[in-house]
Amino acid sequence: KLPLKFEIVNCSNYREVAEAIKSMKIRGAPAIGVAAAFGMVLAANSSKARTYQEFVQDIGKAKIYLAHTRPTAINLFWALERVMNLINIKKDVNLFELKDLILQEAKNIAQEDVEINKKIGRCGSLLIKDGDSILTHCNAGALATVGYGTALGVIRTALKEGKKLHVYVDETRPVLQGARLTAWELMRDKIPFTLITDNMAGFLMLKNKVNLVIVGADRIARNGDVVNKIGTYSLSILARENKIPFYVAAPLSTIDLSLKSGEEIPIEERDPDEVTHILGKQIAPTGTKAFNPAFDLTPHRYIGAIITEKGIIRKPYEKNIKKIFIS
């Protein structure tokens, strides 16, 4: 309902958490991962199981249900696996204590997300000069994480360090996360920004109005290919053409080492009504067919660096990603 109305959505069971993720009441790769972890907490608390085996069956059903909400962001599956791994390790603990441990694990995941984002901010700020104008896409701020942001976290940190900045915000069709969410966050934090439509970015770059581009990510393959909100790929090409650095800010949990390239990452397709309607208002003739992929693939060759909590990863990505995971 943002930016016109701010509401807190309360979920009392894991099915409500799943619905909130699927309907994008909560969105952003880190945020849906943390939400899913708390969905597992709700599933554990509602379980009537008397034995460990029965409990695992109940939680397993919840995990599958939550995992089927959105297919692209790896953080969702990472958080679910982390909770399940805890359950598997603690099989000798009584169920009351196990439920408390699951709650604590979800709280840990949430708190770690804030700390990780702040570390990403400190690493990424090194790439920003005083006076820079930064173009960002979609929303990779507090609303997409637990509370600080990845791409916006870098911007927040640079400002705290005393750098003067200006942010250009892509509206990010079709759901307008830039106009509705990123602009809302920046205005609340009194960060200078200008909203643009997605098709204005190239003109701004041509007129030397943009010094660098920073975006978030929903999944990164081990070769450095990035899947992020639809429109990211176009920006990367425009940045290359105009010799502007293009950076991706994301936690290591967004990197999927099991995938050789981004071609293996599933791309979610959403309801065509998101394209033919804006905030419920129809903008295309009745019966219009629409294509609505929620994400696109940006090949690693267009990416200047990947900013993580352990530092800045540069090319060759496959070698340096492996190196940062074992450091």
UniProtKB/TrEMBL annotation:
<dbReference type="InterPro" id="IPR000649">
    <property type="entry name" value="IF-2B-related"/>
</dbReference>
<dbReference type="InterPro" id="IPR027363">
    <property type="entry name" value="M1Pi_N"/>
</dbReference>
<dbReference type="GO" id="GO:0046523">
    <property type="term" value="F:S-methyl-5-thioribose-1-phosphate isomerase activity"/>
</dbReference>
<dbReference type="Pfam" id="PF01008">
    <property type="entry name" value="IF-2B"/>
</dbReference>
<dbReference type="InterPro" id="IPR005251">
    <property type="entry name" value="IF-M1Pi"/>
</dbReference>
<keyword id="KW-0413">Isomerase</keyword>
<dbReference type="InterPro" id="IPR042529">
    <property type="entry name" value="IF_2B-like_C"/>
</dbReference>
<protein>
    <submittedName>
        <fullName>S-methyl-5-thioribose-1-phosphate isomerase</fullName>
    </submittedName>
</protein>
<keyword id="KW-0486">Methionine biosynthesis</keyword>
<dbReference type="InterPro" id="IPR037171">
    <property type="entry name" value="NagB/RpiA_transferase-like"/>
</dbReference>
<dbReference type="GO" id="GO:0019509">
    <property type="term" value="P:L-methionine salvage from methylthioadenosine"/>
</dbReference>
<dbReference type="InterPro" id="IPR011559">
    <property type="entry name" value="Initiation_fac_2B_a/b/d"/>
</dbReference>
<keyword id="KW-0028">Amino-acid biosynthesis</keyword>
<comment type="similarity">
    <text>Belongs to the eIF-2B alpha/beta/delta subunits family. MtnA subfamily.</text>
</comment>
